[in-house]
């Protein structure tokens, strides 16, 4: 459970997206990630509280159905499926960008297509192979981040390598201040920070299958929260202390850049391989979630019953095939508009993820209200400060949604979200009328 959540949440948002964030906001990106981390803490504690009280395999979509409305549950289930579809598109796009390190002229869609075919094969063979691959993918990225933090600490203390003469805490405020591009730059990076953390809520999908949820869920939630926040904030802090933020570029992973500019070409190549496997790791976990969600939606009657089918190895083959074909749209996007693919796709992921986050917060508020009306005691594992912490989450969701409107590429996320919500509303109303007609 912990490795899957880490695999989902530590990916291209940190390894590639942070480069664009540093370029836009400079050291202020640290504050943006800290705010996003605070939101994640509130979400995971609230989700964990509900999961301990009443574990559900459907998790947040089921909680939205129970505590908000059947319509909210329907929209949340399908929107999370969309998030898990578009997420791999962005990650496969990143894999194409990473391959440019070795093959600058390689078309971006080629590595994306190869990665998609390989992951489809992994998922088709067995669930066990997925679990094994995800464990090792997640472990590689954790080792890489810890290695970067230790490497940066050595540079700061000893001054070794070409970066040593410029490594200083003063890099956080010397080059234009902590907010070198003002509040506007900081505001625009909120979407980047949120995108980086989207996926950690996947823990809720697996929570319903935990053997002893009262013990395993609090432990898993606590470990995931502090590990992810430490990894993100710690890694970004090191990156912006070992050299000025102005030396990073938007289209190159800062993790690769820092080793390259330190004169360690071999280490830079190794790190580029690591961030490539990181993208495949997140894509791997997202495709697993998407296929299981589609299978679950079919089981609940919210998707065609034909998708409620498993192979002899207990793999939801039809749901997996549909999921893979849908992710394949991202390969086509990389063929048609490679320069805009990554930021556009991440904006769609952010918009859909923000809906899920808001539903978790609202479901938790309604859950607490129901417990109060019934006079039932609160679970031992709970979200501190509720409902104010829930209000904080919803307020941050609104702020980030507004930030998406300020750039053409990110505005696509809002347009897509509006069309998606309208489509789901039409489908839901049609289904309700058909049910009444029977």
What does this protein structure show overall?
The structure is a single chain. The protein has 438 residues and is mainly α. It contains 18 helices and no strands. Helix 6 (70-99) runs antiparallel to helix 14 (265-299). The longest helix has 37 residues, at 338-374. The protein starts with a helix and ends with a helix. The mean pLDDT is 85. It is a multi-pass membrane protein. It is found in: Cell membrane. Keywords: Amino-acid transport, Cell membrane, Membrane, Transmembrane, Transmembrane helix, Transport. Belongs to the amino acid-polyamine-organocation (APC) superfamily. Amino acid transporter (AAT) (TC 2.A.3.1) family.
Mean pLDDT: 85
Q: Runs with pLDDT <50, length 5+? A: none
What Rg is obtained from the alpha carbons, in whole angstroms?
21 Å
Shape: globular
How large a portion of the residues is in β-strands, by DSSP E?
A: under 5%
List keywords for this structure.
Amino_acid_permease_CS, transport, transmembrane, cell membrane, 18 helices, 438 residues, mainly alpha
Structural topology:
Blueprint: H1 2-9, H2 12-15, H3 17-25, H4 29-53, H5 60-67, H6 70-99, H7 109-125, H8 127-158, H9 182-188, H10 190-197, H11 203-207, H12 213-242, H13 254-261, H14 265-299, H15 317-336, H16 338-374, H17 388-403, H18 408-437
């Amino acid at each position: 459970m912990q490795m899957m959540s880490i695999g989902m949440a530590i990916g291209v948002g940190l390894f590639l997206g942070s480069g664009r964030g540093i370029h836009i906001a400079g050291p202020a990106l640290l504050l943006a990630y800290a705010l996003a981390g605070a939101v994640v803490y509130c979400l995971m504690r609230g989700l964990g509280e509900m999961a301990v009280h009443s574990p559900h395999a459907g998790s947040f979509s089921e909680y939205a159905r129970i505590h908000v409305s059947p319509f909210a549950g329907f929209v949340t289930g399908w929107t999370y499926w969309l998030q898990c579809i578009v997420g791999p598109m962005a990650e496969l796009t990143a894999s194409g960008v990473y391959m440019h390190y070795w093959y600058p002229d390689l078309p971006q869609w080629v590595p994306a297509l190869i990665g998609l075919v390989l992951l489809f094969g992994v998922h088709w063979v067995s669930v066990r192979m997925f679990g094994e691959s995800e464990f090792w993918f997640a472990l590689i990225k954790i080792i890489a981040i810890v290695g970067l933090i230790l490497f940066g600490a050595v540079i700061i203390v000893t001054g070794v390598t070409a970066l040593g003469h410029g490594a200083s805490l003063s890099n956080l405020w010397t080059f234009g201040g902590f907010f070198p591009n003002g509040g506007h730059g900081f505001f625009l990076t909120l979407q980047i920070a949120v995108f980086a953390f989207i996926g950690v809520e996947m823990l809720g999908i697996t929570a319903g299958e935990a053997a002893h949820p009262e013990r395993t869920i609090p432990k898993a939630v606590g470990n995931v929260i502090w590990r992810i926040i430490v990894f993100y904030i710690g890694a970004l802090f090191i990156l912006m202390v070992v050299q000025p933020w102005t030396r990073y570029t938007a289209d190159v992973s800062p993790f690769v850049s820092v080793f390259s500019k330190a004169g360690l070409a071999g280490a830079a190549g190794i790190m580029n391989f690591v961030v490539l496997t990181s993208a495949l790791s997140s894509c791997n976990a997202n495709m697993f979630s998407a296929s299981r969600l589609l299978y679950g939606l079919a089981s609940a009657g919210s998707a065609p019953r034909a998708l409620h089918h498993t192979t002899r190895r207990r793999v939801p083959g039809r749901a997996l095939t549909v999921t893979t074909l849908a992710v394949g749209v991202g390969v086509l996007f990389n063929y048609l508009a490679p320069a805009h693919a990554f930021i556009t796709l991440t904006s769609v992921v952010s918009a859909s993820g923000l809906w899920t986050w808001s539903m978790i917060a609202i479901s938790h508020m309604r859950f607490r209200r129901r417990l109060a009306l019934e006079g039932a005691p609160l679970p031992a594992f709970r979200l501190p400060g509720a409902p104010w912490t829930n209000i904080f989450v919803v307020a941050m969701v609104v702020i980030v949604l507004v930030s998406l409107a300020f750039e053409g590429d990110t505005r696509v996320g809002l347009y897509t979200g509006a069309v998606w919500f309208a489509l789901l509303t039409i489908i839901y109303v049609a289904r309700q009328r058909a049910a009444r007609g029977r």
